Amino acid sequence: LIMCFLRDLxxxxxxxxxxxxxxxxxxxxxxxxxxxxxxxxxxKFARVxxxxxxxxxxxxxxxxEEGPASYVWEALDILGVMRVDHGNxxxxxxxxxxxxxxxxxxxxxCPLSNLRLRVVDDLRxxxxxxMMDKGLVVTVNSDDPAYYGGYVNQNYRAVSExxxxxxxxxxxxxxxxxxxxxxxxxxxxxxxxx
Length: 194
Known about the structure:
This protein has helices at residues 11-21, 46-54, 69-79, 94-102, 111-116, 128-133, 145-148, 152-163, 167-180, 185-193, and strands at 2-6, 30-34, 58-63, 83-86, 106-109, 137-140. By secondary structure, the protein is an alpha/beta fold. The protein has a 6-stranded parallel beta sheet with strand order 1-2-3-4-5-6. Helix 4 (94-102) links the parallel strand 4 and strand 5 (106-109). The longest helix is centred in the last third of the chain and has 14 residues, at 167-180.
């Protein structure tokens, strides 16, 4: 499990959530930051992320979905995330795109959620293909299907049709998903071989 802090609440609330999670550290692998991005920069949660890092949690955060590319920079440099959730607006900053590619930072892209939240107005204009063309490590995910519709396979189908992805491109995205996952190395090797 990856538990998430609500970014539209304050850091004190996130600290209390982390406190409540500590007794379940054996079942909670990581922490994330989600909810309304605009006006709630990642840097607002620097202390709770430092504490979570010290406790050994995997760190991720929504950044650059609705918020600007600067939120992705903050997630990387202030929070020290190991994966970026969404990252759509990273494409607005060439230096950031270069860094994400060099560092092989995984982006958990959620096409149907992006459409429902009006991050994109048409899946044919979703940045996923441009991300791939720039060498970014993109994965396809569902992001709260009960709220936004579309489980993982539905997201794959929708974005594949909208962007006319080839079989090899889809396989590359699936492989990225295994590499970016929190599975153990042996599990990853087995899944990739299959």
